[in-house]
Amino acid sequence: MLPALVRKTWRDDRRALLGWTVGLAAFTGIYTSFYPQFQGAAQLKQDALPKGMLDFLGIADMLSPTGYLQATIFSLIGPLLVLMGAITLTARTIARPEEDGGMELLLASPVSRLAFAGQRLAATGTAVTVIAAVPWLLLMVIVPAIGIDVALSNVAAAGAGLVALAWCFTGVAFLAGAATGRRTTVLAVTGALAVATYMANAIGGMVDGWHWLRWLSPFHYFIGTDPLNTGWHPAALLTLVAVGAVTTLAGLILFDRRDIGV
């Protein structure tokens, strides 16, 4: 049987999990299912946007099947929605009960601090994985159903990258919450870091002499390898997972040693 704290966390977060899952499913389904009808609009959009703007957004070609999927699902809005869901849920693991005054009751459970934080994070990590995997799972069905000419193995590679990206920022968000116990800090720090690293990846790909910036950005390891065209890049995926694991471990250590506000 699953630990009580895992089950409680899932119960507390079930509405948020359902909302994010349904929202991402609708977003993915609408954009991909109507790909043939959107081709004309994509042509107009690509003609209207300056090349510099397309490069900044990581969109090389909106007309090809891979370019369309990258532009609509994997370039900006898709990752943004996934990260918003991941950060929001992760802020509930430590920061929310501490701010709301419920930490004392939760810590009254016959488990250590590390076990408490680990169980809460395990429940949240499962929920984040479900949310992040929604585009991956839906695309594996929709892409062949409507005849989008993209290899399913490449779709899976991009989907796995989105999950790994979510794990990376989940670790960062957990670290911020475990260190401070403040939801606003979790949202501000992780959100600012996501924006800054996205900008670093975009600028590094556009400006000569600044290419090194891309190696500092999780977004480079997610989509900079162009998985929709080139397939799997295990080293890049493992880098994202490693960042998530290291920040999670640091968060567990800090939470175990910090004075907790109850």
Q: How would you sum up this structure, described in words?
A:
The chain is mostly helical. It has one domain (4-257). Helices cover 79% and strands 0% of the residues. The protein is built from 13 helices and no strands. It has helices at 4-33, 35-48, 51-56, 65-74, 77-90, 95-100, 103-107, 113-146, 152-180, 183-206, 218-224, 227-230, 234-257. α1 runs antiparallel to α5 (77-90), α1 packs parallel to α8 and α5 packs antiparallel against α10. It is globular and about 55 Å long. The protein starts with a helix and ends in a 5-residue tail after the last helix. The mean pLDDT is 85.
Quick rundown:
The protein is mainly alpha-helical and 262 residues long. The chain is built from 13 helices and no strands.
Query: Globular, elongated, flat, extended or rod-shaped: what is the shape?
Result: globular
Pattern of helices and strands: HHHHHHHHHHHHH
What is the end-to-end distance? 29 Å
The low-pLDDT segments are: none
Throw out a few tags for this protein.
79% helix, globular, 0% strand, 262 residues, 13 helices, mainly alpha
Question: What's the topology here?
Answer:
Blueprint: H1 4-33, H2 35-48, H3 51-56, H4 65-74, H5 77-90, H6 95-100, H7 103-107, H8 113-146, H9 152-180, H10 183-206, H11 218-224, H12 227-230, H13 234-257
